[in-house]
Amino acid sequence: MTKFFLLDDDELNNELVVLLMNSLGVFDVEVRTSGIDAIQYLEDCKMKAAFPDIMFVDLNMPGMKGLSFVNLFERKYKQYSPDTRIIILSNSILHSEKDEALKYESVIDYWNKPVTYKKLSETIHQIETE
Amino acid sequence: MHNPYPKEGVSAYSNKEGLSQTGDLLVNRDFINEIAFVTPDLITIFDVVSNKVIFANYENSFQNEQSNDDNFSVPDIVGMNLHIYPGDRKKAKEYIEKRYSLADSEMIEIELRNKFENEWGWIKIRSKVFKRNAQGKAIQIISFVTNITEKKKIAEEIKEKAYFIQQITDKIPDILIVYDIPEDKIVYVNRGLFLTLGYYPEEFYSSKPIKYENFLHPDDYQKRLAQMHVMHTLKPDEVRETELRIKDAAGKWRWFKVRDTFFKANEDGSLKQILNINQEITAEKEAEEAYLKEKLINDELKRINELMDTFVFSAAHDLKAPISNLRLLTNVIDCAEETEKKLKLQNKYSQIIERLDKTITGLIQVLALEKDSTSDLKKLKFLDIYNTVSKELTENIYVVNPNIHIDFSGCPSIFYIESYLVSIFRNLFTNALKYRSEERKLNIRIKTQRWGKGALLTFSDNGIGIDLSLFSDDLFKPFKRFSSQSSGSGIGLYLMKSMVRKNGGNIEIESYPGMGTTFKIHLLDYN
């Protein structure tokens, strides 16, 4: 069963993405709205030795930025869960941000918002067939 | 050649024959001998009738020699073996003639160049009628000859030094003024006054008391007056510096660096005269002003660039977010199968539209701020502004019911843009209400104090605080929110900072999570 994690400060966005996932039959989604909460979540995962398969991470958040979270994940938690993959979500219009994000080994894709039914279903399908 | 002057220990010598011819003189002989003995001067008495020196306090003076071109012949002078400089001989002859026609009390004198041994020096001769005949005609002349070579040398040196100083003081462009404090009068100015400002010294000397208001810039006048008032405390090794604007003869203001120094003391050691050195620094001042002006323009351009960077991208981001959500919502509604669920989801449109509206309102506010609003300037009472804003926020204040402590006594008012000050108060108030702690009653303290050319407004609360180590970079940037729960558009702090900094003010923030937040706002008076 595929486990999802969603990190975004935009609560409405989160609510809608979760609904979209539900309509695709995905119910195992953890949602956090700040980097600090997300790190706490990773600590919990480490304790339980259960990490998500896919993490959706928004770039632009108050406080800890999305890429700082990715960086921290790779340094401190990736060793416990080398297969966890990250998909960046962003409203940014800057190319530099995309290039920077894709440098991280765990980052497999960069999506401009909004998340769509099509993209989401393709990704879920791909992961489940692996 | 030998020195015609009596040396120490040489006794006076008198021609007894000559003296006996003039009976009256006998009475005074001892007295004259006494004087002749003690004086370093050469003294002669010349008898006009016999054309002979009848008294001298020096032996060799009596050797009458024939005159020739090389050896100037004047009976009583030649007799002393003087060697007058040829160029002075005509003058000497005239002098000798003049002696015969002197009045009783009259004494004449002459200075002549004379050769001593092999060196030229100076002598001074003073003459007076010593005796007259029954007809009142001068028959005896007394002369005193003094070696003034040393004195002349010193005088020459002084003249040389004075010339040297004169040359320097005349040629430096600095204005040197010697001012006498007890007299309240300028006693000296150099040519710098004319060279630099175009005034003639008389224009400065004449006025007493000195009319500073005629020369000093109105903004510097009081300052200079105050400085002059305490000038008597100037110490001998002290230099007091100030910068002033002085009006030149053409009416143009020129900047000067003014140094006041101790020049002359009274007998009791207290200051009598100051030397005031005025160095023109107009060019430096103008360059400095031009630099500051340019810097101001550069800073403004830099600020606009930064604004464009943060503002445009942040605005794009914040506008795009609700639009993404709209599309996402549409997508979700399409996927929903039950009609009831679809309808429920449609309610979310208004939520997104509200956010879009807030963002756009914020954008408009930022753009409006960039426009010049200095027409709104007036003297504002902090209390009035506080009342306006608390009235506007009555409902929110009623719900939260905070303790509010205000103290505007330290600085009750300021000359400022009204809409800005209202906006600053509104933002501070709204923040304090919004980020209050649920665990304690909200306390708000508002205080103003004088600060330089303006006011320091301190606004403190005991709310949730902000972790500055996490957010300080973004704190005053537009469209940044620091709490996922917050409902604002994220431009409050940015707007506040932009308004305060518009005329050179500044905002500082101190905050500790769980303790509260203090804003220290330095408002610069627009007046």
Explain what you see.
The complex is a heterodimer of chains A (130) and B (527). Chain A is of the alpha/beta class and 130 residues long. Chain A has helices spanning 11-23, 35-48, 66-76, 95-102, 117-129, and strands spanning 4-7, 29-32, 54-58, 85-90, 107-112. A five-stranded parallel sheet of chain A has the order 2-1-3-4-5, with helices on both faces. In chain A, β3 (54-58), α3 and β4 (85-90) form a beta-alpha-beta unit. In chain A, α2 runs parallel beside α3 (66-76). The mean pLDDT of chain A is 91. With 527 residues, chain B is α+β, with helices and mostly antiparallel strands. Chain B has helices at residues 16-21, 23-38, 75-78, 89-99, 149-171, 192-197, 201-205, 212-215, 218-229, 282-335, 339-346, 348-370, 382-392, 394-400, 418-434, 468-471, 492-501, and strands at residues 13-14, 42-47, 52-56, 108-116, 119-132, 138-147, 175-180, 185-189, 239-247, 253-265, 271-280, 377-381, 403-407, 413-417, 443-451, 454-461, 506-512, 516-524. Chain B has a six-stranded antiparallel sheet with strand order 1-3-2-6-5-4, sandwiched between helices. In chain B, strands 8-7-11-10-9 form a five-stranded antiparallel sheet. Chain B is rod-shaped and about 160 Å long. Chain B starts with 12 loop residues before the first strand and ends with a strand. Residues 1-22, 60-73 and 482-486 of chain B have low confidence and may be disordered. The A-B interface holds A 9-13, 16-17, 19-20, 23, 33-34, 60, 62-64, 91-94, 113-117 and B 313, 316-317, 320-321, 324-325, 327-329, 331-332, 334-337, 345, 348, 351-352, 355, 467, 470-471, 474, 480-484.
